[in-house]
Amino acid sequence: MAHTSINVQNSLKLAIENAIKKAIENGQLNDAPIPQFVIEEPADRSHGDFATNAAMVSAKAFRMPPFKIAQAITENLDLSGTLVDRFETAGPGFINFFLSKQYFAEVVKDVLSEGENYGKSDFGQNKKVMVEFVSANPTGPMHMGNARGGALGDCLAAVLDKAGYDVWREFYVNDAGNQIEKFACSLEARYLQIFDPTVEFPEDGYQGGDIIDHAKAYADEFADALVNVSSEKRKKVLVDYALPKNIDKMQADMAKYRITYDKWFFESTLHEAGDVMRVVDTLTEKGLTYEKEGAIWYKNKEVCTNKLLAQGKTQEYIDNLELKDDVLIRQNGNPTYFTADIAYHKNKFDRGFETLIDVWGADHHGHVMRMQNAMDAIGCNGEKLDVLLMQLVKLVKNGEAVKMSKRTGKAIGLSDLLDEVPVDSVRFLFNTREANTQMDFDLGLAVTQDNQNPVYYVQYAHARICSILKALANDGINPRECTDDELMLLTQSEEIELIHHLASFESQIISSATDYDPTKITRYVTTLATLFHKFYNACRVKGEDESLTQARLSLCICVKTVISNVLSMFSITCPEQM
Asked: Residue 369 and which of 14, 80, 423, 434 are 20 to 30 A apart at CA?
């Protein structure tokens, strides 16, 4: 694949390095190792299309003023084969580069030739990455946090895939442990209350209406069949009846949300395989557990303290963290959620994943360091576990907070949201704010079909280009392959700005993947739509000059292609008419 923008930056970097070496050889610069420098796009393109700080960062190494170093570099600079037209020095020693017309023609040719593959790269070198996201508790309906986590996690996975990683999506089902016992007790009480209203409900039971619905559904089907059996049998039967229904609903909601997981991983399998207890044995063998009050504890405080001291943190800093040890096995002999979580993450590494990415709610902040350090403690690399913490979502409409669904009278959950708001809007809007920021999700905006709604705005740009192509075809004007000279007719500022933006798509994908931030891509495509509308208003596509018409037609197709690539990547529909 050709990647003109990145190729130019690489060739420029090499040309500058060669110029410095020549300047050293002929005595213009002192003999010293070449410092690291960058090639970047300046904020103001009137100063050039690319700029380098090579002279600025070399002042100490060459013991000369940056401006003199810049002179030495430019006097020895050979730009042949770089698609750079000219350069100039500015300020105290920046070197600015101006691209040739051929560069812009090459970018258009890249997009046209690569089509749906434009933006893909091998940056990730096919490294195995797991993105685990949503992983909602199966004892109740999914909520707004799960809605945001679903969009962020799935779109992050899509970006990583585009950047050349081997990506695996996983949902962790907590179908074992304390929450399932609480689920069982709650179901039992609601079931028995149908036949005896005086039965007390557990103080810490699940209060949701879904528990009542499950109990009633079972009673409707099997009447009082469980009233006179043992509590243990009653709870097992009720859980076996209700839990699969909850998991089926989760899977249906995720499918409706256009999320397809490679695996739904059940916690119960870890217990059945003995993996959870093996974690305790491993930590015990390493001297990292102790018994107290009938429970087995993990020396989390010791492990975290040693790691932080090794990183150069002060004791005062560590004391302020108020680190505590964690229970691994409760007094009743049951492992805690934390123990199962260690076993699960070890299982991920054992399956050959090089990087683990978890999307968690911000309330799990304190869990991150102890889980990373626990990975180190059991012989895995905790640095390869990355956690994307996600802040809360507040639903608003007409500036007012919305907590209840008018349709159900209950708290709005993921299922309600997908019933009321187009999936396109939900997936796009949840990716317009970084995970670490609190978010107001505007229900009114999400259903609006005008340019105030970002996804509508982007989809409209795509539909508008389809309309332009159709109208021109009706006039007998169909796209054809342009020569380089024809593409070099695209010289208007609006055309140049648009092509620059198209050229940056691959680097934006890589940046988004590196920073675990898919919101960069929604911003990118929104800007692309804006630049297209600006171009279309300033530059008449159908004109008297047939060559210019064809060049602009090619540019329209490029924009249509990239918008389609982004929306398809994020599983958002790409309409041809609106």
From this structure: 434
Q: Which two tokens stand for residue 70?
A: 């810049």
* N-terminal to C-terminal alpha carbon distance within the chain: 33
Q: How much is the pLDDT for 176? A: 93
Task: Provide mean pLDDT across the span 133-159.
Answer: 95
Indicate the pTM of the whole model: 0.92
- Residues in CB range of 342: below 8 A, 6 or more apart: 279, 371, 374, 375, 378
Structure confidence at residue 408 as a pLDDT band (50, 70, 90):
low
Distance (Å, whole) CA 368 – CA 58: 40
DSSP per-residue string spanning 509-554: HHHHHHTT-THHHHHHHHHHHHHHHHHHHHS-SS-S-HHHHHHHHH
Q: Which helix (H) or strand (E) holds 333?
A: none
Spatial distance between the Cα atoms of 16 and 557, rounded to a whole number of angstroms: 35
Which contiguous run of DSSP H or E holds residue 166? strand 166-173
Q: Which residue has the tokens 């610069």?
A: 29
What does the pLDDT look like over 313-369, one tens digit per residue?
999 999 998 899 999 999 999 999 999 999 999 999 999 999 999 999 998 888 999
Q: What strands, in cross-sheet order, belong to the sheet with 439-442?
A: 400-401, 393-397, 439-442
Average of per-residue pLDDT across 367-383: 95
Of 556, 571, 478, 548, nearest to 255 by C-alpha is: 571
Please give the angle made by the CA atoms of 243, 245 and 248, to the nearest 5 degrees.
110
**What's the mean per-residue pLDDT of the chain?**
94
Query: How many other CB atoms sit within 10 Å of the CB of residue 465?
Result: 24
DSSP SS3 for 175: coil
Q: What is the pLDDT of residue 208?
A: 87
> b or e along 176-206 (b: 16 or more beta carbons within 10 Å of the residue's beta carbon)?
bbebbeebbbbbbbbbbebeeeeeebeeebb
Highest mean pLDDT out of 44-48, 164-168, 407-411: 164-168
Of 285, 272, 181, give the one whose Cα is nearest residue 235: 181
| DSSP tag of 89 | E
Q: Which amino acid is at 141?
A: P
Burial class, 368, CB count within 10 angstroms (exposed 0-12 / middle 13-18 / buried 19+)? middle
From the list 105, 50, 42, 121, the residue with the least C-alpha distance to 79 is 50
> Per residue in 482-499, pLDDT tens?
999 999 999 999 999 999
What's the CA gap between 469 and 483, in Å, rounded?
20
Q: Which residue has the tokens 């332009």?
A: 468
